[in-house]
Queue: 2 jobs
Job 1
Amino acid sequence: MIIDRAEVIVTSPDRNFVTLKLTTGDGLTGLGDATLNGRELAVVAYLRDHVVPLLLGRDAGRIEDTWQLLYRGAYWRRGPVTMAAIAAVDVALWDIKAKAAGMPLYQLLGGASRTGLLAYGHASGSDLPELFDSVRRHRELGYRAIRIQTGVPGLKVVYGIASNGTAEADALPVEEDWDTRAYLRHLPAVFEAVRNEFGPELPLLHDAHHRLTPIQAARLGQSLEPYDLFWLEDCTPAENQEALRLVRRHTVTPLAIGEVFNTVFDYQQIIREQLIDYVRGAVTHTGGITHLRKVLDFAAQYQIKSGMHGPADISPVGMAAALHLGLAIHNFGIQEYMMHGARTDQVFQQSFTWSGGLLHPGERPGIGVELDVDEAGKYPYVRAYLPYNRLADGTVHDW
Ligand code: CS2
Ligand code: MG
């Protein structure tokens, strides 16, 4: 099982995806997702220029050793670009190992701890009727848990609508507007209306997307308590971990954090002090199966569960890796699941199933995803950025 080919494939069927494909001398292939939304080509360069030369000739079976070599051997540690590249190598190696064993990856990770993974989707609308329609559509699609995002009176856009970025060759980031006080006034009434319409059973989630100060987050968590949220996500910018102590003192609304984290070190304080309830890390952005598993095992000691990031900018390869890990661990909480577009599903042939609101990675050996290189070649990279926010006075704000 010597690695003798490593290709970095960039394709943009519905949006940009970066995939690492490793091939061994005996013909086994493994895929890893290296997509970093809006910064895709930085990971491509890191892989092609710095990582691929280290992989050729190595034993594909030595997953932990390869991980440590790429992490420690670089000297410059952590960071989203590095960790996305390491994640892609790691998942590709697990894919190869599981194929060599003739097993779906979750079996190598310890076997299934459940029959399927509860998943949530994104409902959004600029006003209540639009939001209710979106919730109903998600329920028709089978979702048994739903994230609620809504327009705020006076603001131009609704955060939470999936976008593929601006698909023009010379695209620049879109500017959005933000007003925290208007948002805090508006949101509790939205959740009250959703609860009245859809009843007490439906698990509801909300993402504040790093926009609040600690005291604003504390107030929001408190004001949403009557509506029994499954979680409030990214209530404050995650860099300031101590901020969560203040939030926790004031609210029992469960908190989810971590989609922009890359390593266990980012979680050290918030797990040890039990400042969160769900770990939002994605396999793709947290150093792969090898590293995210360590984060989740650490979290398990504190009854903190997984809530892996699963937006459409994580490719089907990254999603498949998440499903195998989520099926195997004991402390699975929920999986975010936004369906990919039809072109993406043609480029990436997948084995996962979606039934009764539950995801399952399927029984194909490996992670269960194959990349159709000819299809991928039809969709070249398109420059695309995430949007950013400005307040009414022009100040740049967290998006
Ligand atoms: C969001 C994401 O899914 C989520 O919770 O926060 O849509 C996020 O904005 C994007 O994945 C960024 O790439
Ligand atoms: Mg989020």
Note: The mean pLDDT is 96.
Job 2
Amino acid sequence: MAKMLPELKSSGVITRCNGGKPVLSKKDIPYEAECIFNAGVTKYQGKYVMAFRNDYRYDGIGAFGKCVIGLAFSQDGMHWEVQEKPFIKVEDMKDPEITRVYDPRLTVIEDRCYLCFAVDTRHGLRGGIAVTDDFQTIEILSMTVPDNRNMVLFPEKIDGKYVRLERPFPVYSRGGKDRFDIWISKSPDLKYWGESELLMGVEDVPFANDKIGPGAPPVRTEQGWLVLFHTVDLDRTRGKNGWEECWQKRYCAGVALLDLKDPTRIIGMSREPLIAPETEYEVEEGFRTNVIFPGGVVLEEDGTVKIYYGASDTVECLATAKLKDLLALCRPV
Ligand code: BMA
């Protein structure tokens, strides 16, 4: 059985915005919506853009009948205007194999906006990469083989190659249970991916005992690539935490720093969570409580870092921190 972890607290460098209330939730959506969460956020053409997940039509047991990706725009990163219609629906994918598209991540590379997303198919979970210039249509560039998810792209080529973080799901080799890690791969064209290497194992993170995965796309700083990831600890003594009869996992956000020239090298990481579930929206209300799922980081010119995260698989929240404080947390490994 996995080792049990103590109560976890958010780092003191984090400030929750909007009084701990969500920045986007179902009341803001002009179409059918229930749970609005796990968004990707970036700045593109002078505006903040958010691609969010909307799960709706709950079956009362543990699954949602529908899931779409919606879009919102903002001038300040705090107040959002939601586009009238969903951005991506399963039907748009025109592939009967695909049953769900979710957890979008946004990265701007050379003035084009790239979207990574998770895809459930009848034969496994896949990671997709697409590009859009107008947020009306997308062009799919590549899809992984199963099982892979949580992909994020670096915002520039490194040594002439595109780079991504990803989270495959090895089963047989990890004892047939969750024991999943963060990997890094490179590509000449965003289509063909290789040179894959393990970046960080779940056992490297003192506050995880189950699995870890990429969170927000990496952000360039002078000291290195700032990377927020998600971590999971499982405790079999936990019971009802949300709408389901039983939810025993806790998700936190972690922070690490990767070498600018060689991002396969971890320079530093925090031994403690950056954000742990604590507020009403994070531990009391929602579909699956105790879930913090970071998906977007925006570094402002004044050194403030905006951190967007899904809370309880139900709402989208925002926290801020000073870049220098985040860097100081990333102690050498
Ligand atoms: C993971 C993903 C996330 C979700 C989390 C908690 O496996 O499905 O989208 O936020 O579980 O339910």
Note: Residues 38, 103, 251, 288, 291, 293, 310, 313 surround beta-D-mannopyranose (CB under 6 Å).
